[in-house]
Amino acid sequence: MSEQGTQQGEERLHSARAIVWARRRAALSTFWRLYRTQRAGLVGLAILIAITLLTVLAPLYTDEAELRASNAPGGRMESPSTEFWFGTDQTGRSILLMVIWGARVSLQVGVVAAVLAVTLGTLIGMAAAHFGGWISWVLMRLTDWFIVLPNLVLAIALVIALGPSRITIIAAIALTSWASTARVVRAQTMAIEGRPYIERAQALGAGHWHQMTRHVLPNLMPLVLASATLQVSSAILAEASLSFLGLGDPSQPSWGTILERAFDAGAISVGAWWYMLPPGIAILLVVLAFTLCGRAMESVLNPRLRDNT
Amino acid sequence: MGKLSTTQASVSPPGGGIGAGDGNGNDLDGDTPPRPERSAARRELWRYLAGRISGAAVSMILVLFSAFFIFRIIGGDPVRAIGGDSPMTPEQRAEIEERLGLNEPMAVQFWEYVKDLFTLDWGESYVSSAQVTDLMWDRLPNTLLLTGTALILAAGLGIWIGARAGWKQGSFFEKSQVGISLTLWSAPTFWLGMIVIIVFSVELGMFPVNGMRSTRGVADGFWPEALDVAHHLVLPAVTMAAVIYAQYVLIMRSSILEERNNDYLTVARAKGLRDAVVRRRHAVPNAMLPTVTLIALQFGAIFNGALLTETIFSWPGLGLLFYQAIKIPDIPLLQLLFIFFAGTTILANLLVDILYRFLDPRVRRSA
Amino acid sequence: MTPLLEIDDLTITYRSARGEIPAVRGISFGLQPGDSLGLAGESGCGKSTVAAAVLRLLPRGTQVSGRIMLDGEDVLKMSFGTLRVVRWAGASIVFQGAMHSLNPVQRVARQIAEPIVLHEHISASAAEERAVELMTQVGLPTWRARSYPHQLSGGQRQRVMIAMALACSPQLIIADEATTALDVMIQAQVLALIKRLVAERDIALVMISHDLSVLADTCDQLAVMYAGKLVEHGPSHEVFGNAQHPYAQALSAAFPIVGDPDERRNPQGLAGDPPDPAALPTGCSFHPRCPVAMDECTSTTVELRAVRHDWQAACLRVEAEPTQPPAATPSALGVAAGPDARERDARAQERDAGSQERGAGDLRVRATSEDDT
């Protein structure tokens, strides 16, 4: 974008809101310019876009009906062929088809759980930083408690207690992984609140809500987004682990569920590598892609990390 | 699970701020004898210890309470879990409820629970009707063996490689090690285990597929048995170590990066030390401090790994016990293991916090 | 007598994401055993780069050309093995100790002893004994040997750095901003200590600072750097009191004498910022800030010219008059001519006398707010 263009745009602005949006657009374009220099981040982004397209467009190039065991087109545990690139499972369904459809569950659970966890973490972190005193003490103790506990064990306990379903899994993952975000957000909120304009807003009588939503949150957003991206990776891994342990959503298989079935069907002892490779690689790729993107975002946001490369 | 982040902004050394020293004050204060400083430091240390221990105690109480809450209040129908799918007469049902004390009011049940905790009466397993504590003690050594081996492997190798990668930032070595670590971290532990078994046991036949001892039996005596166990240990230990290793490499690398541009390293180089000695003697000890804190925070993740690895390899440890209990679900056993895992993590963190005081001479004053 | 340190046409270029950045652009000077040279200039002028280059401590990928002869051997051509032997034993550096120059998790005596163990192959305990001895010599109580750096004050840490530099009895010590972060009282103590030790041991000293008054007090010779070049080099009292190059004049004028009504009415400062090393001005790089710049200055590259046989300046206004002392012919610079220059001379003498009587810089107030990194 040319300098001139920006100037002209600014002249046309009237309301404060328009100025704010122009500033955000400018910040976003700066962000993208810096992000583009992160090669690993671009690779991650490309993988994510490709997998999202494959997942969303799945109904166009596959037949969902073949997912039902009664409708299975192949024989039992067939090895890879031209018809079934990665063979079939114990009921004769195509592994590749199951993996393509499994992406929906894995991605959905991962993204929703991560968004929930980060929202929860942001709220708690901001509250702990803003209110101080005993509220902060209680919230931070709780945060530390959740950080320290073996979160998979806790998530398992919750899913067992509530009964396996997609909502339970999402809730259990979100509830056991918000704490690291809360910590980062708390530290960042305290840094932001130390800035002069917040004090000015306070002096002008801005309420808690106004300060938080208008001043602190916009400044936190980049950090929160980076945190959310990294959180998706952990959430997808957590979902896979829970499903593998038999606590997955029984109605629709995710990648973890496919691996559980492979394990139960004794795919290991017959050496049916084709049964295990596709779902595992799918998990690995998606988790890696989200991690690469998250790390690239962090490097862009943290000048100290960026400079020493 | 633990989030994989390049920043360490969120981690501060336990005990808060690092003492800034006497500052740039009067140069002559150096003549005061060390006595008062030491006793003040000692008092400070006790206050610190008291704070940490009471914090851990609060965490532990929270664990006990949540164990009751999760498993007794919202945790399904224990009667059905015991009976399985077989139909049950109302009399049988009432009898079980009576035995488990399910008819009592919640408050009474909680009181009974706390009383049982302190009298170490943790109940019987739904399945084997053995005391759950006995089941746990039976399996504990096996888990310690696997976890300990994996941890030593991962920590030693991870810190070593991580330090070298951070030291040579921008080199091919660093980039490839970071790439390997990120990939290992992204792989689900249980899937890694499955692949490892297929390749090394099923196809190559180098290692046993699962278990901890050969079923065929080996020659009597300590050494043949130990060798047999070691042979079974290789694959699960390596699998479990892989993910932890990846974390340690990344943590140590970023700690070294933080230290790398510090002036004291230039001083060390100016003294005529070899590059490797500068790294080992000066950079690594300083980078170890934040690493220790981060490792302690991720301690809980080790149990996640143990649970999945033991399941895949049928390693008869606590993780497999937990997995078997999930399948039932065997509530008293799950409850005990939950408390044990959480308690161990809290204890380990407490120990690291205390250890940190002695490792880092700077942490004298807690903010 | 061969010089102990001889730097000849030293050119150093850093490589960065923005391209090549010249930090030092062809400087030369020599130092005899027992000599002391003060190297002055604003932050970023390349003076610390010179210090690091003497022990080849520059970041990997930095381009260095020219010669650095240390005791007859070219440092730039040494093998790594020889270099490691020369480091610290041949020449050592007093780093700025106030901040991060000491390893925070090692006791100070061990850090002082480290080069002794390395270079003299004696046991660690014997080396630590020597370290404690050195600490006494720099005025630190012996029980401080077991302290960690954070337990020491800034002045004490600086003393540790000095003891460390002395550890292997080098012939040359480079003090890089050794007193910058200290307050005035401590600065005076540390300077007096450096002066005493250098005199006692007949060590050659290169002292680097942005504070010209400190350098004039401690060193026989002064060299002023600007944008990677030497712009003036000569005896301390001349360069400080009677500078020929307008930049050197501005630097010395930046340290007014307290109570001098003339200076209060007419404060001397230098407008503008140091030039960006990646985009240096043409001709004399000082011309954009120079109060007496001429048209020629924008195009002509100026090399050092002799003001006297032992005194050089790189300014077109300096007429080479090697036989006549400059006090007789008032400075070639129009602005500084006339009674003004004589007054300046008188003031410089007074300053010299004062500093001898009262010790270092205790009455001077720092007028610059510059801080060097």
From TrEMBL, chain A:
Spans through the membrane: 40-61, 107-130, 142-161, 167-185, 220-245, 272-294
Key words of the record: Cell membrane, Membrane, Transmembrane, Transmembrane helix, Transport
First and last residue of the signal peptide: none
SUPFAM superfamilies given in the database record: MetI-like
GO BP annotations listed: transmembrane transport
Membrane topology: Multi-pass membrane protein
Residue ranges constituting the ABC transmembrane type-1 domain according to the UniProt record: 103-294
Places the protein is found: Cell membrane
GO cellular component: a single term: plasma membrane
Matching Pfam families: BPD_transp_1 (PF00528), OppC_N (PF12911)
Source species, domain of life: Bacteria
InterPro entries in the record: BP-dependent_transpt_permease, MetI-like, MetI-like_sf, OppC_N
Family from the record: Belongs to the binding-protein-dependent transport system permease family.
Protein name: ABC transporter permease
Species whose genome carries this gene: Phytoactinopolyspora halophila
From TrEMBL, chain B:
UniProt similarity note: Belongs to the binding-protein-dependent transport system permease family.
TM ranges: 45-71, 144-163, 184-209, 229-251, 289-313, 333-356
Keyword vocabulary terms for this entry: Cell membrane, Membrane, Transmembrane, Transmembrane helix, Transport
UniProt protein name: ABC transporter permease
GO biological process: transmembrane transport
Gly residues compositional bias, start-end: 14-24
Domain ABC transmembrane type-1: 140-352
Subcellular location: Cell membrane
InterPro entries: BPD_transp_1_N, MetI-like, MetI-like_sf
Region (Disordered): 1-39
One Gene Ontology cellular component: plasma membrane
Biased composition (Polar residues): 1-11
